[in-house]
């Protein structure tokens, strides 16, 4: 017989490490201006929507069959995109794709970490790195960052030497701070990670198309334990598509296939992503607009007296607030949803359309009396 009363998660035989925990969840509130999840504000252009319909229609004819398990056509086009935009030759064999870069990261942790192993990230950073670690039974180690949210290569290398993690996450540009790291820093961390184990270094470049600087992808050359992860959720304006990918030595691509579910990337997803890649130039045009809107947000927030973190991403971290959550709520009362990532005294706003950013800046101007 079932005991009376409500049944909660902790009444179920769930794994110990999941007890009392909350799922990842940015609020999905229905407000006029949503600048909280670093999405691209521009809907896909009509020509691309038509092309997606065409390619999905063709794929639909064959849905009785499983999709290409290795997504070769898609990986070939992703490799072409990476080669063109980084100047570094990348082949299909260097590329692997999955349902969002979150799944790419999960596959990497399943392959290179897991029970009895550990991963480190330098916090505050992307919270899913620790959550996916937990979900894969990987011990999480919180590494240090400077007061101004930059990475101190010596302190980070020291943490790697001390903890000897199996996976090292470097997020550049970093979420939620917007901070990018240079090649020198990644090389210092890579050397520390190789000396400690060797371990896998994952450079999460979800936002790199918005950066003032270059991609770190060329560093994969001659470094089989270095992986760069990317996504179509931000620059390509296709968060709803769920398509992430990585570039690395072909041996890494072979290794993740040990854990990927067979046929994980649906034929519909592959067809849609291929259509989007045909329109790369149009989509990257929106990136230029968003970069200048990002720079405008930094300039105007600074002029209002906020402390603003330099940003290489499509979002801006600003503060300081005595009570960041109260400030978040006041902005929300003006119909604008920003993000409280839990960084003390700070909030994060995603660059939207010029009109959305104006609405946000009007709300922020009213907050200046709350700046601590
Ligand atoms: N990495 C970082 C740093 C992110 O901010 C995000 C999205 N918020 C992701 C990866 C995952 O994005 P997706 O799964 O949509 O590719």
TrEMBL record:
Pfam families tied to this protein: Aminotran_1_2
Keyword Oxidoreductase applies: no
EC number: 2.6.1.9
Catalysed reaction, written as an equation: L-histidinol phosphate + 2-oxoglutarate = 3-(imidazol-4-yl)-2-oxopropyl phosphate + L-glutamate
In-chain residues carrying the UniProt-annotated modification N6-(pyridoxal phosphate)lysine: 234
Segments for region (Disordered): 1-39
Record keywords: Amino-acid biosynthesis, Aminotransferase, Histidine biosynthesis, Pyridoxal phosphate, Transferase
Major enzyme class: transferase
Pathway: Amino-acid biosynthesis; L-histidine biosynthesis; L-histidine from 5-phospho-alpha-D-ribose 1-diphosphate: step 7/9
Cofactors demanded by this protein: pyridoxal 5'-phosphate
Highest taxon in the source lineage: Bacteria
UniProt xrefs under InterPro entries: Aminotrans_II_pyridoxalP_BS, Aminotransferase_I/II_large, HisP_aminotrans, PyrdxlP-dep_Trfase, PyrdxlP-dep_Trfase_major, PyrdxlP-dep_Trfase_small
Domain Aminotransferase class I/classII large: 33-363
Self-association state and partner proteins as the record states: Homodimer.
Family to which this protein belongs: Belongs to the class-II pyridoxal-phosphate-dependent aminotransferase family. Histidinol-phosphate aminotransferase subfamily.
PANTHER family: HISTIDINOL-PHOSPHATE AMINOTRANSFERASE, HISTIDINOL-PHOSPHATE AMINOTRANSFERASE-RELATED
NCBIfam families: hisC (TIGR01141), PRK03317.1 (NF002877)
Protein name (Swiss-Prot/TrEMBL): Histidinol-phosphate aminotransferase
Annotated source species: Streptomyces sanyensis
Encoding gene (name): hisC
